[in-house]
Hints:
Blueprint: E1 2-8, E2 11-18, E3 24-29, H1 40-46, E4 50-55, H2 73-86, E5 92-97, H3 99-110, E6 115-121, H4 131-148, H5 165-170, E7 192-197, H6 203-212, E8 216-221, H7 228-231, H8 233-247
Parallel strand pairs: 3-4, 3-5, 5-6, 6-7, 7-8
Antiparallel strand pairs: 1-2, 2-4
Amino acid sequence: MAELKVTTGGVELHVEVDGPEGGTPLALINPARSNLGVHTPIMERLAREHRVVRHDWRGTGRSSGGERADYSFPQYADDLAAVLDAVGAQTAVICGCAYGARTAARFALRHPQRTLLLALFDVSLDQPVDQRLQRDLMLEARRLREEAGIGSPELDRGWFAHTHEREALRSLTAHNDQPDPTPELAELSAPTLVACGVQDANLEEARRIAALMPDAELHEMPMTSHPAVMSRPDLMADLLLDFIRRRG
């Protein structure tokens, strides 16, 4: 694993790269409130064949904070482009989970020529849903997994640590006053995986997005709540790796 700092747009981003140097670049974008460590449960599998690029988006994890006006998904998308430049990846598979899927979608719209494949897990591009509903659905998914004899992953507190806690909270304002970019996705040609848990309040939005896109496939993940990487990481990895093998 290699660590580096990438300076762009007035911030210093913490970046980690794993996997073989000649592997297809795969950029993972974190859910809200977490740092790049949240993908630890799936890293071993993903990094066997792919060059996995992770970064703490501005204000989160070990990255520095920026101007308040720059906490926006277009800026997050351009930050990712700078990260890919720094690691020498002209193109990449772009995978975002939950809040990170908003950045992934915006990256594909702003940098379509750099998007080999697009994967949107637990995606909604409208205003966030009631978080109490998400918590109730999380408990329901956990109950269903227990009944089926499927364990729930252990979460590491370190995945939610931020050097600048105030900036990390500000980074979650990126959706404020932003228009829904979903209609623009109809123009994207990149093959797209849209995956969402059955016990996720974003499911209807994920269905809407998948139906609108010209080359998208929808997978509804059973016994899975929001976000998938914290609910059923193995299933998330299964779907992502299968999609890359088939469409890459």
